[in-house]
């Protein structure tokens, strides 16, 4: 796929010497990674190597576990401004509006309608928002998520009436409704059929340029199809990060080469 020509408005994500774990157990060992502004960075590696933990450290979901700990620096870099995610006094709720997340399995709010699912974050971030503006925000998010035409006539229906692929696009719409700077995606198509997977991949590709995305995936073909940059995480460390085509054709690190060639993992 050709690269998007859109000018990114979103910041880069810079991770420096990030270590994290749970109680006495280390998961990440001083990993460093930069996700370019407005691009898709894929994070690949075998199960248990720390991919999901790395993602959850970026918007501080990691710390929701009582035994979790983290050291290092995670920054949003929007030149000349640099925002330290772990700075003292950081409003974590506001941070998570700037850094949205989509999980492996669709997570619609089961008791809420399609409309209310998408509107949820907007209402939190803009208490008292006018009804017309809320409706506009919901419609715009559903359009961006490629779901509007499928649900426009049933916005008051339960989100649980949607197919799995539609529910995942609904979750993406919910994240997009608050206009995040960064979108974290943790195996977003792992539970979906090939047709739904294709729709999600096309959506993520089309979003390039407007939001910085970090995609965790076990599917190396998926990383090759939609990412600009791919990083290989092994045993809690980034062993190679390079433009995606380069990494899959001429990796420089022997461990990365062994992984992408399917010799382990």
Task: Describe the model.
This protein is α/β, with parallel strands linked by helices and 265 residues long. The chain has a domain at 12-105 and 182-260: P-loop containing nucleotide triphosphate hydrolases (Rossmann fold), CATH 3.40.50. Helix content is 35%, strand content 26%. It has helices spanning 51-58, 92-98, 114-125, 131-144, 148-151, 164-176, 194-207, 220-226, 244-249, 254-260; strands at 12-22, 25-35, 40-44, 68-78, 81-84, 99-102, 182-186, 212-216, 229-234, 237-243. The strands form 2 sheets. It has a 6-stranded mixed sheet, with helices on both faces. Strands 2-1-4-5 form a 4-stranded antiparallel sheet, covered by helices on one side. A hairpin with a 2-residue loop joins strand 4 and strand 5 (81-84). It is globular and about 55 Å long. The two termini are 27 Å apart. Mean pLDDT is 92; it is low at 1-8. Keywords: ATP-binding, Hydrolase, Nucleotide-binding, Phosphate transport, Transport. It is an enzyme of class 3 (hydrolase). GO terms for molecular function: ATP binding; ATP hydrolysis activity; phosphate transmembrane transporter activity.
What is the annotated CATH architecture of the domain at 12-105 and 182-260? Answer: 3-Layer(aba) Sandwich
CATH superfamily caption of the domain at 12-105 and 182-260: P-loop containing nucleotide triphosphate hydrolases
Supply the helix-strand structural class. alpha/beta
Sheet with the most strands?
6 strands, mixed
Q: Count of helices?
A: 10
Low-confidence stretches: 1-8
- Specify Rg, calculated over alpha carbons: 18 Å
Give the H and E element order: EEEHEEHEHHHHEHEHEEHH
Q: Write down the CATH class of the domain at 12-105 and 182-260.
A: Alpha Beta
Distance between the termini: 27 Å
Strand order in the largest sheet: 6-7-8-3-9-10
Mean pLDDT: 92
Query: Would you give the CATH topology of the domain at 12-105 and 182-260?
Result: Rossmann fold
Quaternary state of this entry equals single chain
What is the global morphology? globular
Q: Hey, roughly how much beta strand do the residues contain?
A: 25-35%
């Amino acid at each position: 796929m050709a690269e998007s020509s859109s000018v990114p408005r979103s910041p880069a994500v810079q991770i420096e010497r990030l270590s994290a774990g749970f109680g006495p157990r280390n998961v990440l060992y001083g990993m460093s990674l930069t996700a370019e502004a407005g691009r898709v960075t894929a994070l690949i590696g075998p199960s248990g190597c720390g991919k999901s933990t790395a993602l959850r450290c970026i918007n501080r979901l990691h710390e929701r576990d009582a035994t979790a700990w983290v050291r290092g620096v995670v920054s949003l870099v929007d030149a000349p401004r640099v925002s330290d995610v772990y700075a003292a006094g950081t409003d974590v709720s506001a941070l998570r509006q700037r850094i949205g997340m989509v999980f492996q399995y669709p997570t619609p709010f089961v008791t809420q309608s399609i409309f209310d699912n998408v509107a949820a974050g907007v209402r939190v971030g803009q208490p008292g928002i006018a009804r017309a503006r809320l409706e506009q925000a919901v419609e715009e998010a559903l359009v961006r998520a490629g779901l509007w035409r499928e649900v426009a006539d049933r916005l008051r229906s339960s989100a649980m009436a949607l197919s799995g692929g539609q529910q995942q696009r609904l979750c993406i719409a919910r994240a997009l409704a608050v206009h995040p700077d960064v979108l974290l995606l943790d195996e977003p198509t792992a539970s979906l059929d090939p047709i739904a997977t294709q729709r999600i991949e096309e959506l993520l590709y089309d979003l390039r340029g407007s939001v910085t995305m970090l995609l965790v995936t076990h599917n190396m073909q998926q990383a090759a199809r939609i990412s600009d940059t791919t990083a290989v995480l092994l045993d809690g460390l980034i062993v190679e990060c390079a433009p995606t085509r380069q990494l899959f054709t001429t990796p420089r690190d022997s461990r990365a080469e062994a992984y992408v060639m399917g010799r382990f993992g």
